[in-house]
Amino acid sequence: MQELINRAKELLADGTVARVLGWKAGDLPYNPEPAYFEKEEDFADFVYNGFCGANLSKYMIEASKLEGKTLVCLKPCDTYSFQELIKEHRVDRDKAYIIGVGCKGKLDIEKIRAMGIKGIKSISGAEIEDEAETLTIDTIYGEKSCAYKDAMLERCHVCKGKDHMIFDEIIGESKETKDADRFAEVEKIEAMSPEEKFAFFQKELSKCIRCNACRNVCPACSCRKCVFDSNKFDSSQKANVDSFEEKMFHIIRAFHVAGRCTDCGECSRVCPQGIRLHLFNRKFIKDINELYGEYQAGADLEPRTPLTNYDVEDAEPGIVAERG
Amino acid sequence: MSIEKNEEFRPKIVAFCCNWCSYAGADLAGSSRMSYSADVKIIRVPCSCRVNPMFILRAFERGADGVIMCGCHPGDCHYTSGNYYARRRMTLLFSMLDYIGVENGRTRVEWVSAAEGAKFSQTMHEFVDKITSLGKNVRLEDLRCRN
Amino acid sequence: MYKIAKENLTALFQKIAAEQELYLPVRNEGQVNFAAWSEDAQVDIDTLKTVKSPKDAFFPQSETLYTCVRDGKKINIEPEALKEQDFVVFGMRACDVRGVEVLDKVFLVDPLDTFYAARRDHGTIVALACHEPEETCFCKVFGIDAAEPAADVAAWLIGEDLYWKALTEKGEALTNAVADLLTEDAGADETVNKEKDAIRSIVEQLPYTHLSLEGWNGDVLMEKFEDPLWDELYKPCLACGTCTFVCPTCQCYDIKDYDTGKNGVQRYRCWDSCMYSDFTMMAHGNNRKSQKERFRQRFMHKLVYFPANNDGMYSCVGCGRCVEKCPESLNIVKVIKAFAKQGGEK
Question: Which of A237, A235, A258, C68 minimizes the C-alpha distance to B58?
């Protein structure tokens, strides 16, 4: 982390960049927030640890409109989102100085809480330099510990890899954290009967409180005005009405980002109700891979995405019924 | 004297038809006096590519029991390639509907040219039969619209 | 003081639910939220904080106000009936109870919100003391005692027993209704007092307990409003509605029409969030055009505008839900601290 701070200060001092977009330490051991650093003394609060899960690509949309370059710290998975945003002309590559930061898997405080750990005073093992396999958590109710792996975000278990897709320089080592099949959950649902599928999603989505966090955090959801925010559109944008509305919102949201979604997992990370929103995105990704060839959004700068492209030999929609 | 109410299930079916081929096909069916079910309500769109996935979901939400989209045959699109894009979109959407547990068969895509009045009529017959056998759509319906 | 063994709680719930509606924390797909009780509901009263606050019981996220149906040349307006059924909310916490008091200040003053008032009339609150407060709790800052909730019935979950003490007339009535399941316990006071002391000593150790609200009151409106600090604070905000929707005191709502087809319109109201771009949208446009203004609104409302209009009562209760749930880890505590830090530097 110190190397990163030094380099950032250096680039700030020589005028290469006008500001640094990174994370500021929170007031609890696990709640750093995205922040801009413009002066050398600001860096006292700079932090980069296991809890810096936020994908800063989205903030670059706004930062691209500012005067001068912004140094942005991107984890390997964040660079996919950034590249996708370049493709869509939502960020300006020339306004960004990308430092690819190493990542050894990001932590999910909700997972730690779900283990019954509460009253947290401090957490050790979450620093980026730590090689620790376990987290030691000091709480009001005694010292607890858990495996680093068990506290990782779901997305890190299906990590896309250690490579940064786009960067100006790389600081820090990344670690392979993948230990699960990305489509395993999707396949499990596909194997269910229609009744079971319906019941599954009914239960999962009945939790939705329409806070729109999934949409607002999503780097692919970069429309200036979302269709769901239109008051002419007769949707229950803010009301959870326990009818088809929630499902429609999530299907359409996933559809709008289909072919552009890099599977960065931010939607599932931020959902206050722990809805596994990636199940929608991954279904589209799986279908695209199977029907139109393997595709990873954000892996290249090829402008045509699967849904803005076609092949005369494409499968007919009837295939859905045929494969059963 | 009272009129006996017909309680038999009649499905509500929405058909999105492209202006250039399928809508003309429906016209031909009509002018050739080929019948198709009155349960089918046609919505004319400029191109099958105009059909936003939201239209389909909205139709279901508002009480449709089946939705069919008809466009020009692949290769014959008035705008060259609209139906190719539509084909991908609908494939993914139908797959998603299947994934969330909507019965297969409530949605369909058929390519109908302006010369295929008979195909239009036959397709609609088939689709109405299929939906009648599936019964009322309850999984995608908005309960507020029921009254 | 009464008590009931934990294992008999199901019987208690059955008994209450036989006469009235019963809402309590229920676990669904890994998340605990207040929901109506049913035989197969997975009741979870050990989890300290439900994701959403229990304000839904009195002020639901969405509710229909009336329905218009066209009948030939007439329009029939069918108003939604007010709540007539008595109900019990079991398992609220001291902070949530204060949250309801805050809502009272908004909805039970002129003009009276009849929907809310009817629910308040028919609702009885059984609140649990917080056995194990968490690091995100800061109710003490607002003078709330987590060890002794001020509800209709206060309850303490200690070991294998639930201790039960009616505090109001409604609470007495509920106690009488379930009296045959409760046993009088003469030694209970001592056990409960011990528990209260234990809770209070834990609360003292919580990191946010000694947060200072100095400088936040109804008289600092312009000074705080114009503070340049807001230009920095709002930046990480995503403009989602998480903080407002999990909050026990956020009371803003929007009224909208839903076209039900067949010549009908349903007018409903639903919670609104000051973080949303269409918040207080009017014909002329929007009052608060930037996210900075919307972000500022939330904290100014809780810490300045509300106390200015309600004898100094803050409309934050320190439940810490926003602290836990904000996607980017922003929250009211960070805002208060940022101002305090700036004050120190000046």
Answer: A235
If you average pLDDT over residues C309-333, what whole number do you get? 94
Q: How far apart are CA A103 and CA C101, in angstroms?
A: 46
Question: Which pLDDT score is estimated for B75?
Answer: 93
> In the β-sheet with B66-71, what is the strand arrangement from edge to edge?
B40-45, B13-18, B66-71, B107-111
- Comparing C-alpha atoms, which of C29, C58, C61 is closest to residue C42? C29
pLDDT tens-digit profile of C99-155?
999 999 999 999 999 999 999 999 999 999 999 999 999 999 999 999 999 999 999
Q: Residues 6 or more apart from A189 whose CB is under 8 A from it?
A: A197, A200, A279, A283, B99
SS3 B6: coil
Residue B144 to residue C259: CA distance in whole angstroms: 9
Strands C87-92 and C123-128: parallel
CA angle C23, C28, C34 (to 5 degrees): 20
pLDDT for C67-96, tens place per residue?
998 888 899 999 999 999 999 999 999 999
Which residues of chain C lie closer than 8 angstroms to A54, CB-CB? 327-328
CA atoms within 13 A on the CB side of A246: 20
Question: Which ipTM was obtained for this model?
Answer: 0.92
Cα separation, C30 vs A306, in Å, equals 35
Question: With contacts defined as CB-CB under 8 Å, which chain B residues touch A197?
Answer: 99-101
Show which subunits contact A, needing at least 3 CB pairs below 8 angstroms: B, C
Nearest-by-Cβ selection for B62 from C67, C261, C266: C261
Inter-CA distances, A161 with A105, A157, A158, C117, C244, Å: 11, 11, 9, 56, 36
Closest by Cα among A287, A291, A218, A289 to A257: A218
φ, ψ dihedrals at C260, nearest 5°: -90, 10
Render the burial of C217-242: b for 16+ CB within 10 Å, e for the rest.
ebebeeebeeeeebeebbbbbbbbbb
**Given the structure tokens 């505590």, which residue do they identify?**
C333
| Residues A36, A70: Cα–Cα separation, whole Å | 9
Q: How far apart are CA B26 and CA B29, in angstroms?
A: 5
Per-residue pLDDT band for B147 (boundaries 50, 70, 90) equals low
Long-range residue pairs from A312-317, CB within 8 A, at least 24 positions apart, any chain = A312/B74, A312/B75, A312/B84, A314/B84, A314/B87, A314/B88, A314/B91, A315/A291, A315/B91, A316/B87, A316/B91, A316/B109, A317/B87, A317/B90, A317/B91, A317/B94, A317/B107, A317/B108, A317/B109
Q: What is the per-residue DSSP string for C286-309? A: ES--SHHHHHHHHHHIIIIIHHHH
The pLDDT value recorded for residue B20 is 95
For residue C48, the chain A residue with the least C-alpha distance is A118
Q: How far is CA C164 from the centre of its chain?
A: 22
Give the other-Cβ count within 10 Å of A62's Cβ: 13
> Kind of pairing, strands C74-79 and C62-71?
antiparallel
Contact criterion met (CB < 8 Å) for C260 and B147 = yes
Name residue C88's beta-bridge partners.
C22, C124
C246/A238 Cβ within 8 A = no
3-state SS assignment for residue C127:
strand
For residues C164 and C183, the answer to whether their CB atoms sit within 8 Å is no
Q: For chain A, first and last CA: distance in Å?
A: 51
Contact A226, A215 (CB under 8 A): yes
